[in-house]
Amino acid sequence: MSGQTITWSTSDAAIATVSSSGLVTSVADGSATITATSGSLTATSAITVSQTAASVEVTPTSKTLTSIGDTVTIAAAVKDGGGNTMSGATVTWSTSNSSAATVSSAGLVTSVADGSATITATSGSLTATSAITVSQTAASISVTPTSKTLTSIGDTVTIA
């Protein structure tokens, strides 16, 4: 049908857009109807957009906590095959070693004792991990006694 003008439209541009050449682009999950009009003739195509999770990414992928009770929030992003973040995707959290670090349902990791733990974010069958190391560092050091005078050769003192 050369010479015929076709006008394209979408029932919901928040779900799918359509170009003047009929190229449909997904925007968000949902359904939209694409309509082609030429004169008094119309035809439609039902478009359903349903993102499929392809990967899970976590940030940070590793962290060292240096005090008991320290926390870090790990963020997880579920992405589709195009690398687009899927809003509203469900993520569950787990730890490989709750004796070293625990994790809340929101991804908040809390150090419990020296050691290491792998924190796993899971969405469906997809996972991503963050390596957590708990390694306490001394905040201060002290000795007792802080001073002592030895008055004879061979005198000793134990400093603790």
Automatic annotation (TrEMBL):
Write down the Pfam families for this protein, in alphabetical order: Big_2
Which InterPro entries does this chain map to?
A: Big_2, Invasin/intimin_cell_adhesion
Q: Which SMART domains match?
A: BID_2
- Where is each BIG2 domain found? 52-133
| Identification of the protein by name | BIG2 domain-containing protein
Q: What organism does this protein naturally occur in?
A: marine metagenome
